[in-house]
């Protein structure tokens, strides 16, 4: 196999981002040479500390290097000051816009033997819906009224549903290769509220259905569910879901809810994905309460590195990382404090690297 070199931007950011991103780098470096994969790492700056030092939370240089020199990136976390600071806004939100990372992908998986096993991926549209932030407030004789635009387009709905279909197929391929699974076949659940919002959510629903009717998805079962009843079923019967595709706001809420089901933010990865580019990002924040103590759980970042590799078409490498993490969790001897263990970040990393 010809060697492939992937250039990966590393953006630790603030707080525990600085402790977990090096773990992401180490697991990539530890992948077996037989995969024919090489990595070059480029250290990049963003976050609140960068803002304090340079006046920009997301320096132009960081964006330029990601665009021109990187195949993918790992992003740690950035702290958000509790009161608004003039000129500061979230660099990851800006990055999603500047690189057109239109999908936020969040796999949620329980540790083996859970009473209600969970193994799902939430695919959230990332560019429109209520997040276009077109709000206005006006006065009426009865008092103020505020309103916001909810924008849903065929283009964005179609590409996000297509991505969900592709993820469902990829998961099926991994299962067919022998990975244990609670699912029998690929399934995509479209979520919406078109019983009330017949035009906006109606368009999302019909466009997603059309996209998933493409012949390459003929093996994928497609169902749909109203978002409120999905929340109910998600908490009672999470094993019923394989891939969920949702407009921006519902996706945001569902993915945090689903993350709560598996016990710790420290376990849940995500990826921000666009055409040919992916940024892996742990779901947790900068966690200032535990920084500098070597107790942050690195698993969300390790899984985010694997997820990034999946979107760079390196599924085999990704599968090795997932398996090493799962083996650590299933044995349960070297767990970080958020999972009830006593292990340091460094000990968890060493254990997982050994299994790789
Ligand atoms: P931010 O403002 O950056 O979002 P936060 O204070 O909201 O920071 P989060 O990172 O969102 O912090 O975390 C919420 C809680 O979960 C914190 O108590 C934190 O200690 C815990 N937590 C988050 N990530 C991890 C992790 N990787 N390992 C262990 N505990 C974590
Ligand atoms: Mg937070």
From TrEMBL:
Essential cofactor(s): Mg(2+)
Catalyzed reactions per annotation: (2R,3S)-homoisocitrate + NAD(+) = 2-oxoadipate + CO2 + NADH
Protein name: homoisocitrate dehydrogenase
Pathway: Amino-acid biosynthesis; L-lysine biosynthesis via AAA pathway; L-alpha-aminoadipate from 2-oxoglutarate: step 4/5
GO cellular component, one term: mitochondrion
GO biological process: isocitrate metabolic process; lysine biosynthetic process; tricarboxylic acid cycle
Domain of life: Eukaryota
InterPro entries with a match to the protein in the record: IsoCit/isopropylmalate_DH_CS (IPR019818), IsoPropMal-DH-like_dom (IPR024084)
SMART domains: Iso_dh
UniProt keyword Magnesium, yes or no: yes
Keywords: Amino-acid biosynthesis, Lysine biosynthesis, Magnesium, Metal-binding, NAD, Oxidoreductase, Phosphoprotein
Domain Isopropylmalate dehydrogenase-like residue range list: 7-352
One GO MF term attached to the UniProt entry: NAD binding
Family: Belongs to the isocitrate and isopropylmalate dehydrogenases family.
EC number: 1.1.1.87
NAD as UniProt keyword: yes
Annotated source species: Podospora appendiculata
